[in-house]
Automatic annotation (TrEMBL):
Signal peptide range in chain numbering: 1-18
Organism of provenance: Cryomorpha ignava
Highest taxon of source: Bacteria
Keyword terms, alphabetized: Signal
Protein name: Porin
One matching Pfam family: Porin_O_P
Length: 396
């Protein structure tokens, strides 16, 4: 019932906005359809409204999660069939083409994920306020509907900053050759999605510098569905520091990596870094990330050092073999996570192989994936397990 009410409110908003658009301009509002769904716009483009729905259907066995320990790794097998994501996206601009807005709603969980307003008049200096996925890792920034594999890697859950509320300045500077850079600098609440304040009254500070070494800003997609003939790539360094009761973030908000007794009020001082690379050319797509995270538990006077890396590549083999299906991509990923880099006594590995078939680029895509998890822990020994998933992701 809650989701039905939410859908009704969104549709009511869209209807009212259409009337406002008509009132702002004497000419009729244009209706079209493109990559961002249905679009209403005035002739001068000062007002624009884009509406898109997205559904993600998934089958998985023996489970759908990325396990975090041996207990989850070896849990009893199940067969899971579900609507993994159901999203409604609304964006556009108002008053001027450079004053943009966007919000995204998860219909399945009844959660408002994104809401932000962007001032993007100049390429070199832009502003954003609201809630969004922070520009910390490429893997998290890429929409779950534009991934090369079914979902993100094993290490995403440990290092992502996910969605936060705050303000940021960003832009793109330089020429169309080697000297092309993008930057982001943000001040955030540091408490995750839907949190309007940090309980400890501290803030999160984040910065990212990205070198677009091919002279053009790198796109945020996992597969080279555009078949870039000249190539496009980036090397980025990002960092963040924050204090408060959380050292882990997800689409559900702030959390903690380790279990915290109810008798202890957690307080963490966290610093983390990410070095990433990405490149696309003629159907080939590459990306990697290397993370370091230092968690200073000031309640228990302990420090944890975490590290993680993944390497991922995909290719449309039709570029080499004309008889290979033109819309089919094969992609693979290797991930390693070390929760204690001082001793390196615990190591988690992920090996994934996926086949994508693009009916309509990322807007209509079928993916089959097999993953091998291998965990090495002195307390449990070495264990491994396979996971199989099939996913259909469609937007309209």
């Amino acid at each position: 019932m809650k989701n039905l009410v939410s859908i009704f409110l969104f549709l009511l908003y869209c209807t009212c906005t259409a009337h406002v658009l008509r009132a702002q301009d004497s000419s009729d509002v244009k209706l079209s359809y493109g990559k961002k769904g249905f679009e209403l716009a005035t002739d001068d483009d000062n007002y624009k409204l884009q509406i898109q729905a997205r559904f993600q259907f998934r089958y998985a066995t023996p489970y759908d999660i990325d396990p975090v320990n041996h207990i989850q790794l070896m849990q009893p097998a199940r067969q899971i069939a579900e609507i993994n994501r159901a999203r409604l996206k609304i964006g556009g601009n108002a008053y001027k083409p450079y004053l943009k807005y966007y919000f995204e709603y998860e219909l399945k969980r009844g959660a408002l994920l994104d809401f932000r307003v962007m001032f993007e008049k100049w390429d070199w200096l832009k502003f954003k306020v609201g809630q969004w996925k922070i520009e910390y890792t490429r893997e998290r920034l890429i929409s779950s509907g534009k991934q090369s594999l079914v979902d993100r890697s094993l290490i995403n859950q440990y290092f992502t900053l996910d969605r936060q509320q705050g303000v940021t300045i960003y832009g793109n500077v330089g020429n169309h050759r080697l000297a092309n850079f993008s930057y982001w600098a943000a001040v955030l609440t540091g408490s995750g999605r839907s949190a309007t304040e940090n309980p400890t009254n501290d803030l999160m500070y984040h910065a990212r510098l990205q070198w677009n070494f091919c002279g053009k800003e790198m796109i945020m997609e996992g597969s080279d569905t555009e078949f870039h003939q000249k190539g496009i790539g980036a090397i980025a360094l990002a960092g963040a520091t924050y204090k408060g009761p959380y050292n882990l973030f997800s689409s559900n908000g702030g959390a903690n990596i380790y279990n915290v007794p109810d008798s202890i009020t957690p307080f963490y001082d966290v610093s983390q870094l990410n070095l990433e690379t990405a490149y696309m050319k003629r159907g080939f797509a590459w990306q990697s990330e290397t993370h370091l995270k230092i968690i200073d538990d000031q309640a228990n006077n302990t420090t944890s050092n975490l590290a993680g890396t993944y390497f991922q590549a995909g290719y449309f083999f039709h570029q080499l073999f004309p008889k290979f299906p033109e819309k089919m991509e094969i992609a693979g990923r290797y991930t390693i996570f070390t929760p204690h880099i001082d001793t390196r006594d615990v190591i988690h590995n992920e090996y994934s192989l996926a086949v994508n078939y693009f009916f309509k680029n990322h807007l209509n895509k079928l993916t089959a994936e097999i993953t091998r998890f291998e965990f090495d822990d002195p307390g449990f020994g070495v264990d491994g397990r396979y996971r199989f998933r099939v996913q259909w992701d469609i937007s309209f």
